[in-house]
Amino acid sequence: MKDFIAAINQGTRHLSHDLLGGPRMLRFNWVINFQKGMTAFWVLGLMLYYENYSTQAWVYLALHGSYGFAWILKDMIFPDGKWQTKITLGGGMMAILAVLGPYWVAPYILISPVLVPAHTGANWIGMTLAIFLYVLGLVIMLSADAQKFYTLKLKKDLIASGMFGRIRHPNYLGEMMIYGSFALVVWHWLPWVILAWVWLGYFSINIIMKERSMSRYPEWSDYKKRTQYLIPYIF
């Protein structure tokens, strides 16, 4: 099983870093920041083109659009080292096509009548839940990434307190809450299918590989016993 997971991770890394070969012209964070930063303009463009100015569309623009700018600020102030690596042009294209690009399907479903005619999105209860989930998820993700960045800057050690005191992967939890909030606003099954693909095919592999890396610390065994993966006291 370990070899299988490692093989998947190696294959995913090859596709996103070295596809088609050639020089590594791009930094991974450039690709990510481009997609996330352009999301607000993509959503606004859809609204203008299809003349859809519904409350759901404006709420989606506010949530997903602000997240993109928040991510860029995070990358400027406390960047994650794994996104600073150089990748090939093919790797950047694969990252867009396989993971980042499909995120733009959700607002297309909500705003455009092409795929799902007369689709209005969530009601006021769904949008309230989405906003609540988004804000909480954004705080968790940013706090966890900030703690990791500044802690590791001082000492390369296992982080077992603060945001990491109850769960081992709060940054992934925050990301899942954020994108789950976008799917709630859309109120359609297709965004959840896309999220399942990303969470199971990408997030889960990253979490497993991260756990293997953290297991090298002497205190790992005790830390693992008193914490959960993503949800305190549950999972």
How far is the N terminus from the C terminus?
Answer: 21 Å
Number of extended strands:
2
Number of helices: 9
Radius of gyration: 19 Å
Quote the beta fraction. under 5%
Overall geometric form: globular
Which percent bin holds the helix content? 55-70%
Defining key terms:
235 residues, mainly alpha, two-stranded antiparallel sheet, globular
How is this structure best described in words?
It is a single chain. The protein has 235 residues and is mostly helical. The chain has one domain. It has nine helices and two strands, in the order αβααβαααααα. The chain has a two-stranded antiparallel sheet with strand order 1-2. The longest helix has 31 residues.
Topology:
Layout: H1 2-17, E1 26-27, H2 28-50, H3 55-77, E2 86-87, H4 89-100, H5 105-111, H6 124-154, H7 170-186, H8 189-214, H9 220-225
Antiparallel strand pairs: 1-2
Helix pairs in contact: 1-4, 1-8, 2-3, 2-4, 3-6, 3-7, 5-7, 6-7, 7-8
Quick overview:
With 235 residues, this protein is mainly alpha-helical.
